[in-house]
C-alpha cells in the first residue's frame, strides 16, 4: 500500500470508533475499488510472544483469533473470497482463517457461504500453506467427530481414512490376535468392530523405528449395560476423537511429507447394551494374557486401548502416544484448557509441551503414581479391575494407571482429551462443536521428531 493510503486509512479507522480490541473486528465498505468490503482486526500487542504462565505464544493465538473473527464476519456478509493479511505470521493467519470458517453443515439444507481464502501480497506463502495444511488436518478430525454415529460407523470411519491412506482389519483378524478386551466392548453392537492400522513411511531411513500413535475409536458410547444418562449422550458420537485426531494427524504428516515413520492404530467399535453385551462383573482376557474384571461397561476406552497398546509394541516403536476421550474426570480436572498428559518419559513430555506452546492447543502434565495403580490392580476375580476401587476419586489418574499395565515401552504418553473434545466458545477461533483437538499439536510434535537423531540421545 502507498503511505498516503495507509495514513488515510489510519484516519478512517480512528474516526470510526474506539480502538479495536484484541480479536475484535470492524467492517469498512467502499474504501478500495478491488476490495469492496474490508474487515480490520485487532491483533493486540505484536510483541506479546511466548507467555510463561499461559504456556502458549500469545501473539500467535491473537492472530488466530483475530483472523478467524474477520473471516467469519465477511462470511456472514456472504463474501465468497477473502484475501488475508499475513499479520506477521502467515501460518497462524492461515490457521485462524481455515479453523474459523469450518462448519459441519453437510446435513443441513441451508448451508453457510463457502469462502475461499488466499494470502494477501506477502512473501511467506510457505508459512501460509503450512497453516492451511495444519488447519485442514484439525478440520478433518472435527468432521469425523461431529458427524452422527449412524453416518460414521466403525466401517465408515475406516473407509474414510482408507480413501486417504490405510489398511484395516475385521473381526476374524481381531479374534486371531486374541484381543479379548477390545472384542468385549464391541459385543453389544450390531455394527462390526474394525481395527484400523495406518503406516506412513516418511523417513529416508525406512528402518527408522516408528512413532506409534494409538487412538480410542468408540464411534458411539452409550455406556453399554452401565448405560449413561440420556442428557448429552449424543455427544458420545465423538468418543472416537482419539482415533480421529490420530488419523487426521497422520494424513497431515503425509501431506507435509514429514521425514518420520509413523504407525497409527485405531480400535473402532460401538459400546452398546444388548443381550450379547458384556455385563458388569464379567472377566475378559486382553491380548497379553492379563485378565480384567469389567465392573463398569462404561469404562470401555481403556479396554480397547489395552489390546491396541499390546499389539503396538510389536512394531518396536521409538515412542508411543495414545489419545483418548477417556474420562469425564479429565474434564472435571482441567476443563477445556488443556489436554491431560500422563507419561513415563520426561523427554516425551518436553516434546509434547514444546509443540503445544507453538500451536496454542495446550497440554498439562498429570501424575502416574503407584497410588493409582494399587486402585486398579486390586480386583476380586481378575488381575485388574476396569474401574478404580474408590470409584470417582482421581478417575482420570486411575484410568491412566490401568493403561500403564499394558505398556512396557520407556517412552509412552497417554493423552486424555475428554475435556477438550468439544468447544462452546472457549477457543475463540473454533465454532461451537467438536473441536478436533489436539491434532495440530500432534502434527507439530511429529514434525519436531525429525531429524531422527534427537531421540536416540535419550
Ligand atoms: N467416553 C467416556 C468419557 C467421556 C465423558 C468423554 C465425557 C468425553 C466426555 C468414557 O468411556 C466413560 O464413560 N468413562 C467413565 C469411566 C467411569 C465409569 C470409571 C466416566 O468418565 O464416567
Ligand atoms: Zn464409556
Ligand atoms: Zn468412552
Q: What ligand molecules are bound, each kind once?
A: ligand BES, zinc ion
Structural class: alpha/beta
Distance between the termini: 51 Å
Radius of gyration from CA coordinates = 23 Å
Largest sheet: 9 strands, mixed
Helix content: 25-40%
Number of strands: 20
Total helical elements: 15
Low-confidence stretches: none
Global shape: elongated
Average pLDDT number? 94
Strand content: 15-25%
In brief:
With about 450 residues, the protein is of the alpha/beta class. It has 15 helices and 20 strands.
Walk me through what this model shows.
Its EC number is 3.4.11.1, 3.4.11.5, 3.4.13.23. Homohexamer. Belongs to the peptidase M17 family. 37% of the residues lie in helices and 20% in strands. By secondary structure, it is of the alpha/beta class. The protein has helices at 3-14, 58-76, 90-101, 125-146, 154-164, 171-176, 180-186, 241-255, 301-312, 328-334, 346-359, 370-377, 395-404, 439-448, 453-456; strands at 25-32, 35-41, 50-51, 56-57, 81-84, 116-119, 167-169, 194-201, 211-215, 217-221, 261-271, 282-285, 291-294, 319-324, 339-343, 363-366, 384-385, 412-416, 422-423, 433-434. Strand 5 (81-84), helix 3 and strand 6 form a beta-alpha-beta unit. The chain is elongated. The strands form six sheets. Strands 7, 8, 9, 10, 11, 14, 15, 16 and 18 form a nine-stranded mixed β-sheet that branches. The structure holds ligand BES and zinc ion (2 copies).
Amino acid at each position: 500500500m502507498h503511505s498516503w493510503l495507509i495514513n488515510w486509512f489510519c484516519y478512517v479507522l480512528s474516526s470510526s470508533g474506539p480502538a479495536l480490541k484484541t480479536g475484535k473486528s470492524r467492517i469498512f465498505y467502499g474504501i478500495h475499488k478491488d476490495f469492496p468490503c474490508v474487515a480490520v482486526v485487532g491483533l493486540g500487542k505484536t510483541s506479546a510472544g511466548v507467555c510463561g504462565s499461559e504456556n502458549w505464544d500469545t501473539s500467535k493465538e491473537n492472530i488466530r483469533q483475530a483472523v478467524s473473527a474477520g473471516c467469519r464476519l465477511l462470511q456472514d456478509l456472504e463474501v465468497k473470497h477473502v484475501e488475508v493479511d499475513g499479520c506477521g505470521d502467515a501460518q497462524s493467519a492461515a490457521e485462524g482463517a481455515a479453523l474459523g470458517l469450518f462448519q459441519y453443515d453437510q446435513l443441513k439444507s441451508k448451508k453457510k457461504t463457502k469462502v475461499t481464502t488466499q494470502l494477501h501480497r506477502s512473501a511467506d506463502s510457505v508459512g501460509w500453506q503450512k497453516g492451511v495444511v495444519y488447519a485442514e488436518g484439525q478440520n478433518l478430525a472435527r468432521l469425523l467427530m461431529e458427524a452422527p454415529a449412524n453416518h460414521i460407523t466403525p466401517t465408515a470411519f475406516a473407509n474414510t481414512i482408507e480413501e486417504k491412506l490405510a489398511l484395516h482389519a475385521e473381526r476374524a483378524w481381531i479374534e486371531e490376535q486374541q484381543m479379548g478386551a477390545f472384542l468385549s466392548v464391541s459385543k453389544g453392537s450390531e455394527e462390526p468392530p474394525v481395527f484400523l492400522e495406518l503406516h506412513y513411511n516418511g523417513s529416508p531411513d525406512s528402518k527408522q523405528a516408528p512413532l506409534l500413535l494409538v487412538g480410542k475409536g468408540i464411534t458411539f458410547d452409550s455406556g453399554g449395560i452401565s448405560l449413561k444418562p440420556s442428557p448429552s449422550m449424543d455427544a458420545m458420537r465423538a468418543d472416537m476423537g482419539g482415533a480421529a485426531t490420530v488419523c487426521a494427524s497422520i494424513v497431515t504428516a503425509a501431506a507435509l511429507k514429514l521425514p518420520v515413520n509413523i504407525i497409527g492404530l485405531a480400535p473402532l467399535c460401538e459400546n452398546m447394551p444388548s443381550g450379547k453385551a458384556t455385563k458388569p462383573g464379567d472377566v475378559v482376557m486382553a491380548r497379553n494374557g492379563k485378565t480384567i474384571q469389567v465392573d463398569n461397561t462404561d469404562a470401555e476406552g481403556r479396554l480397547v486401548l489395552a489390546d491396541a497398546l499390546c499389539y503396538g509394541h510389536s512394531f518396536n516403536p521409538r515412542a508411543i502416544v495414545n489419545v483418548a476421550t477417556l474420562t469425564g474426570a479429565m474434564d472435571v480436572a482441567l476443563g477445556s484448557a488443556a489436554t491431560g498428559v500422563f507419561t513415563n518419559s520426561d523427554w516425551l513430555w518436553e516434546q509434547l509441551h514444546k509443540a503445544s506452546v507453538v500451536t496454542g492447543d495446550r497440554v498439562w502434565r498429570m501424575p502416574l503414581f503407584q497410588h493409582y495403580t494399587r486402585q486398579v490392580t486390586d480386583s476380586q476375580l481378575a488381575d485388574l479391575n476396569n474401574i478404580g476401587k474408590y470409584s470417582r476419586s482421581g478417575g482420570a489418574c486411575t484410568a491412566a494407571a490401568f493403561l500403564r499395565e499394558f505398556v512396557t515401552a520407556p517412552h509412552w504418553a497417554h493423552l486424555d482429551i475428554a475435556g477438550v473434545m468439544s468447544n462452546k466458545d472457549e477457543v475463540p477461533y473454533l465454532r461451537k462443536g467438536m473441536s478436533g483437538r489436539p491434532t495440530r499439536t500432534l502434527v507439530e510434535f511429529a514434525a519436531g521428531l525429525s531429524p531422527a537423531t534427537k531421540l536416540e540421545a535419550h
